[in-house]
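README: folding subset

This subset contains proteins for which both the sequence and a predicted structure token string are available. Records are stored as plain text. Below is the entry for Copine family member 9 (473 residues), shown exactly as it appears on disk.
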Amino acid sequence: MVWVMERYTFLTVSRHDLFFKDFLGQMFCTLGEIIGSTGSRLERILSGIPGKKCGTIIFTAEELSNCRDIATMQLCANKLDKKDFFGKSDPFLVFYRSNEDGTFTICHKTEVIKNTLNPVWQPFTIPVRALCNGDYDRTVKVDVYDWDRDGSHDFIGEFTTSYRELSRGQSQFNVYEVSNPKKKGKKKKYVNSGTVTLLSFKVESEYTFVDFIRGGTQLNFTVAIDFTASNGNPSQPTSLHYMNPYQMNAYAMALKAVGEIIQDYDSDKLFPAYGFGAKLPPDGKISHAFPLNSDGENPNCVGIEGVLEAYFQSLRNVQLYGPTNFAPVISQVARSAADITDGSQYFVLLMITDGVISDMVQTKEAVVNASALPMSIIIVGVGPAEFDAMEELDGDEVRVSSRGRFAERDIVQFVPFRDYIDRSGNQVLSMARLAKDVLAEIPEQLLSFMKSRGIEPRPALPASSNPPAHMHI
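--- output ---
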């Protein structure tokens, strides 16, 4: 699933005859609003002509079936060229998808098989869309390399195929001659640099993020904002919390960028919002999970605008203090996630912070515990600080561990906001880039939880049984 980052879909409806157009109306929406609506069916009123009813337009969304197909294949090779002086070769394969402009994009690398000219690679799985983007006859190029420790891998040869050819499975059509153009040009008797054979090929359909959303799975979005003193006095322009009347600060930009995308997948638009690291009135007690709306019984804010309003109000009421403790708010959201593990809810916690974590040991334990729950954590770092600890929590390379236990899933995504500041000062562009990257892993994280628990999406919710009259376009 790809989160669509164009902020709004703009639609103009007109009657188009041979010599003229009549404007009939227009509307704005996001793709997320269409997918996130009941039955993936969204109806909206057209507008644009003062004093006139322009009618209603209805959108429905469906996912192309080949977007969910997963191909599993295994290959072997025979009599590859010997490249190593003291041995044979250490071969591996690199698969490339061809693009519309004639270029190629890497879509898979196999493992390296050491010291052999007749390797048998392990079976691997790849989404069909990654292999051919749904075009079964699109060229798939495969390069064969001899692995070298210094990274200067020796080219053995190449061959081309297609998804349609591969789908025939093990047969005479799927034995490929590996060709090295340079050797072919130099040696008149050159035949090939070995052969690669497809041993097996199967295709299965997997559930997608859209399947779960259409089946009623709700994303529960929670916000946690850093109110520690290292952010600076909010009344001063140097503060990361500075309330500039003319533009949003980094906290507000990050919140709005991520929240406006994810809110389309939350039907009630009620978002719990917390602060951490502040002294609260009237007694100056330090809290690491206080509701931004000051309502301990109901921390929900209405919409992202409601969260922003509560955030600015808190800046006026609390005293920035410290330390920077993450574990309390992670554990608080985890308790909610632990109550609903049937696939109907998935919890996303957005944490925005400026500094180094003070309770790293406790935070790691909280993340490990949360990794077994329907929950993801997004951390956006603002300001100039070093965020080494955040990188450690983002388990892309090494899974987070605590007391000898490793996280069941990678559920943390960290990005430093400074990497997304547009040099021209375009805040909209900065926010779009930020949202794209911080939300990139959520669909796969949701799917990994559902798959680990054997949870299947419920049937797509039916659209409204009494639709309004469609506008004829």
